[in-house]
Write a structure and sequence with these properties.
Bound molecules: zinc ion
Organism: Citrus sinensis (Sweet orange)
Protein name: Rnase h domain-containing protein
Strand content: 5-15%
Number of helices: 16
Structural class: alpha+beta
Order of helices and strands: HHHHHHHHHHHHHEEEEEHEHH
Distance between the termini: 25 Å
Strand order of the largest sheet: 5-4-3-6
């Protein structure tokens, strides 16, 4: 799901771990008394996703710890309509006019706070580890366990920031405005951009002002600042600004160079000039399977290799096999595609791109005619499996 509201925390099972509550549990009026008792419940999340499963007037979908229900009196028809009706069609953003017309100021403000496109932007923008994107996503949705957020959820903790002991600890404070964080930003290529009202606003400014490289670095610095804060809270250890910046830069470098290694170069036979072309990632939600076959005519054998990677270029699975048979190159390639298809079918990836480097097989598969020979037969089978 592209837009999901993460209320889950990694801290689970053990005693003393605090988990964010499921909205329903938090917001059903009859549960109010039980909030304190139920505060340590299994982490869960509510997903707005496309907004098709959540009903405007029926579900507690607003980001408010007191009451997640709409408080505006609504016509029955609107009440039972899914939330996606409040979004601009196909754009995953709120229809500002519709929201303003329909709801009272309290509801309106809460709805417009829900950042529908953040996750997608993060996915498109950032080339950083998933755990770092996840931290930013939780920070942008204001669900990090800062003392401010814990107190909003009626958990008894001192309000002061454990790093500076001078201000209340909100998400924007600990990650950006706290003295230590501020020093990190000032010393980094990202810079300190002045006070903003929320982390989401800060993130938006960074995305719009900084280069792609600096956005990646900013994400890593946030990750390290948060880790530093946790080290202070749990182990009472303090770090230094240069350590944060060095380790953020190092981690980013390691991550990105590992990902570059995962991409391999190949020879594009369909091109008249034989040159190296880079493996390209599929779009989000797709996986790509590269298939290659090799003919070992002296042994009357065909070797076959398939590699599946996701939109992040991350290796998912691979298959390697040998078959007896005297094939021509083009038959071997087609045979490879057939084997890959039946293998992929069992793996049940929802959307798969198959990439091959044999122009003849590509043409045969995409042009709608078949030839009455062995090659044509394999192609037919491929079409049947696809
Ligand atoms: Zn502070």
């Amino acid at each position: 799901m592209m837009n999901s509201f993460w209320w889950g925390s990694k801290r689970s099972g053990g005693s003393g771990g605090i988990n964010w509550m499921k909205w329903e549990r938090l917001c059903k009026p009859k549960d109010f008394g039980g909030i304190a008792k139920d505060i340590v419940v299994k982490g869960s999340r509510i997903q707005i996703g496309s907004g098709q499963q959540v009903l405007i007037g029926n579900d507690p979908w607003l980001p408010n710890s007191e009451c997640g229900f709409i408080t505006t009196e609504l016509h029955e028809e609107i009440k039972m309509a899914p939330v996606c009706n409040l979004m601009v069609p196909d754009q995953r953003r709120w229809d500002y006019d519709a929201v303003t017309d329909l709801f009272n100021p309290r509801d309106r403000d809460l709805i417009l706070q829900i950042p529908l496109s953040t996750r997608r932007d993060l996915d498109l923008w950032l080339d950083v580890p998933g755990k770092v994107k996840n931290l930013l996503w939780r920070a942008a949705n204001n669900v990090l366990p800062t003392t401010d957020n814990l107190r909003n959820r009626k958990i008894q903790v001192l309000p002061l920031c454990s790093v500076c002991n001078a201000y209340n600890e909100s998400v924007i404070h600990i990650l950006v405005d706290c003295g230590f964080a501020k020093s990190c930003w000032i010393a980094s290529p990202v810079g300190y951009i002045g006070q903003t009202s929320s982390f989401l606003e800060w993130l938006g400014l960074i995305f719009s002002r900084c280069s792609k490289e600096d956005c990646d670095l900013a994400a890593m610095i946030c990750w390290k600042i948060w880790a530093h804060r946790n080290d202070k809270v749990w182990n009472n250890r303090s770090g230094r600004v240069y350590q944060i910046l060095n380790s953020a830069g190092h981690l980013l470098y390691q991550w990105q160079s590992l990902r570059k290694q995962a991409m391999f170069t190949d020879v594009d036979e369909s091109s008249s000039v034989h040159g190296a072309v880079c493996w390209k990632r599929p779009h989000v939600g797709w996986v790509k399977c590269n298939v290659d076959a090799a003919v070992f005519s002296s042994q009357a054998m065909v070797g076959l290799g398939c590699v599946v990677r996701n939109s992040e270029g991350i290796f998912l699975t691979a298959k390697c096999d040998r078959f007896l048979g005297s094939f021509g190159a083009r038959e071997a390639e087609a045979f490879g595609v057939r084997e890959a298809l039946s293998w992929l079918k069992k793996l049940q990836f929802p959307r798969v791109i198959i990439e091959i480097d044999c122009l003849q097989v590509f043409k045969a598969l995409t042009e709608n005619h078949s030839s009455p020979n062995g090659f044509g037969l394999i192609i037919e089978e491929c079409r049947f499996l696809a």
